[in-house]
Amino acid sequence: MSEPSAAPTLVVGLGCQRGCPAATLRALLDQALEAHHIELQAVLALASIDLKRDEPGLIELAAQLALPLTTFSSAELAGYQSQLSHYSQIAFERTGCYGVAESAALALAEQMALAPAKLLIPRQKYAQATFALAGTA
């Protein structure tokens, strides 16, 4: 008999401008998941860059969704540069990495699953924020 496959590890990466409201982040999250037919309940955690660890909108969103928010340094995120679908010079100038949402999602998915992750939804931009979904699915 074969073992039942484990549920995929799905992680949302978010980047945002300072002061971006939780409602904007939530709208982007809901829109992207709906477009890709992914249930919000399948998402295990949120990820971003450590420069945003005290960002009120991210903290509020994590609380609303009852999901952990994990942040990574730009040095940790830089290791995922080759997997990014989009390179943002502005993000690099501000943070030291070319894509916060995608690289944070990849970093946390790999950390949680202890396995290589891939982008399942590449970078989506909406108002003041970016979104990506990575996982081991």
Topology (SSEs and partners):
Blueprint: E1 10-16, H1 22-35, E2 43-49, H2 56-65, E3 69-72, H3 74-78, H4 89-95, H5 100-113, E4 118-126, E5 129-135
Parallel strand pairs: 1-2, 2-3
Antiparallel strand pairs: 1-5, 4-5
Helix pairs in contact: 1-2
Written overview of the protein:
It is a single chain. With 137 residues, the protein is of the alpha/beta class. The protein has a single domain (10-135), classed as 2-Layer Sandwich (Nucleotidyltransferase, domain 5). Helix content is 36%, strand content 25%. The chain has five helices and five strands. The chain is globular.
Quick summary of this structure?
This protein is α/β, with parallel strands linked by helices and 137 residues long.
Sum up the structure in keywords.
single chain, about 140 residues, alpha/beta, Nucleotidyltransferase, domain 5, 5-stranded mixed sheet, 5 helices, about 35% helix, globular
